[in-house]
Design brief:
Number of domains: 2
Structural class: alpha+beta
Helix content: 40-55%
Number of strands: 15
CATH class of the largest domain: Alpha Beta
Number of helices: 12
Bound molecules: pyridoxal-5'-phosphate
Order of helices and strands: HHEHEHEHEHEEEEEHEEHHEEEHHEH
Mean pLDDT: 97
Radius of gyration: 21 Å
CATH architecture of the largest domain: 3-Layer(aba) Sandwich
Largest sheet: 4 strands, mixed
CATH superfamily of the largest domain: Type I PLP-dependent aspartate aminotransferase-like (Major domain)
Shape: globular
Strand order of the largest sheet: 1-9-8-5
Strand content: 5-15%
């Protein structure tokens, strides 16, 4: 078996190489490295794709979340509800801005925030909620939006792992993930579903005034050059990245479909195995499988990873330590127990998933995975 990787960006690049190389070359020739025309074009094209009015490109997904929070004008100590079971960036920016992260548990089947837990966590100090569409699965947004509306709390969607996904409301309306909250955020980190060849991120909103504010904060707090209204930051998407992303955006639906097909293959291979729980797909969403994450039951995960590694099959744990147990954030771990998060931490395992996987590779991975599970269940 050829060198297996969690994500194979090389093979993907080879398929679109002429287009990409030409786009990069154009930027080099223009020397418009900062805020070149591709940045504006990409913002407009992404807005059309997502069905939102405004897209503000920025330097990375972490900045996108930070700028979104800054635009809400929160005060130190204001509470922001987030899952603990997420990539650290979601929570880190809350703490960085001297806000208080309030952790809620996730559901064991969807891996996303439990809406009843959010309801219980709301206080008079709650000033924002950050749902995370983890692994490519959308949060139950209809319930969350209703709850947030009732309490007048803005929602910032962390869409870093679910761009291209959709959510269908009970009335049948289908929208893109990231377009439902007051603000949506994403990352173009190379391994994300829409990844650049370096860092990048974007912020989305349908609110005109908020869009101006977000743009101003991302640009040193200025609307007019050298006249600074508020304390902001410097967060820009490079023109070269925008040029690359314009091309990759045209392939995003096909990339999501390819990931979904890999997930179908895995699901089918592992179905009904008593020690392997395949990822649940909530009926309200099109799950775009940023990760394919299984839960192992009654099998040592360490031993499984070792057996896979012996066959040169990579696997990853997203994430081995949830946010509320990170040294950085321990001070914010409330009295609320997060039993599902604590459980998942020890049983999740993610397998290679990307847009270029072959049936041979999938057969090889699943055969060895099932063999290992059979051996380990009796261990
Ligand atoms: C990747 C990611 C981010 C941060 O994006 P960067 O571009 O790496 O800063 C934030 N939240 C989630 C859930 C992510 O997966």
């Amino acid at each position: 078996m050829q060198h297996l990787q969690m994500v194979d960006l090389k093979r993907q690049y080879q398929k679109i190489k002429p287009e990409i190389d030409a786009a990069i070359h154009n930027v080099l020739e223009s020397t418009a490295f900062i805020n070149g025309p591709d940045v504006q074009h990409f913002g407009k094209e992404l807005a059309t794709y997502l069905g939102v009015k405004h897209v503000i490109p920025c330097a990375n997904g972490t900045d996108a979340l930070q700028i979104a929070l800054m635009a809400l004008g929160l005060q130190p100590g204001d509470e922001v509800i987030t899952p603990s079971f997420t990539y650290i960036a979601t929570v880190e920016v809350v703490a960085l801005l001297r806000l208080k992260p309030v952790f809620v548990d996730v559901d064991a089947d969807t891996f996303t925030m439990n809406i009843d837990a959010v309801r219980k966590a709301i206080t008079s100090k709650t000033k924002a909620i950050i749902p995370v569409h983890l692994y490519g699965q959308c949060v139950d947004m209809e319930s969350l939006l209703a709850l947030a509306k009732e309490h007048h709390i803005p929602i910032i969607e962390d869409n870093a792992q679910a761009i291209g996904g959709t959510y269908t409301f009970s009335n049948g309306t289908t929208v893109k993930t990231g377009s439902m909250g007051l603000i949506g955020c994403t990352s173009f980190f190379p391994s994300k579903n829409l990844g650049g060849y370096g860092d990048g991120g974007a912020i989305f909103t349908n609110d005109d005034a908020l869009a101006d504010q977000l743009r101003m904060i991302a640009n040193h707090g200025q609307k007019v050059r050298y006249y600074h209204e508020v304390v902001g930051c410097n967060s820009r998407l490079d023109t070269i990245q925008a040029a690359i992303l314009r091309i990759k955006l045209r392939h995003l639906d096909e990339y999501c479909a390819a990931r979904s097909a890999v997930a179908d293959y895995y699901d089918n291979a592992f179905k009904n195995h008593p020690h392997i729980i395949t990822p649940y797909r909530a009926p309200y969403n099109y799950h775009v499988f940023h990760q394919y994450t299984l839960q192992l039951k009654g099998i040592s995960r360490d031993a499984m990873q070792q057996k896979l590694a012996a066959h040169h099959i990579p696997s990853m744990i997203y994430y081995p330590v949830p946010s509320h147990k990170q040294n950085m954030l321990k001070a914010f771990a409330g009295s609320e127990q997060l039993p599902v998060t604590d459980m998942l931490q020890d049983v999740v395992i993610s397998l290679p998933i990307h847009t270029e996987m072959t049936e041979d590779e999938l057969a090889y991975i699943t055969t060895h995975f099932i063999d290992a599970a059979e051996e380990l269940k009796n261990a």
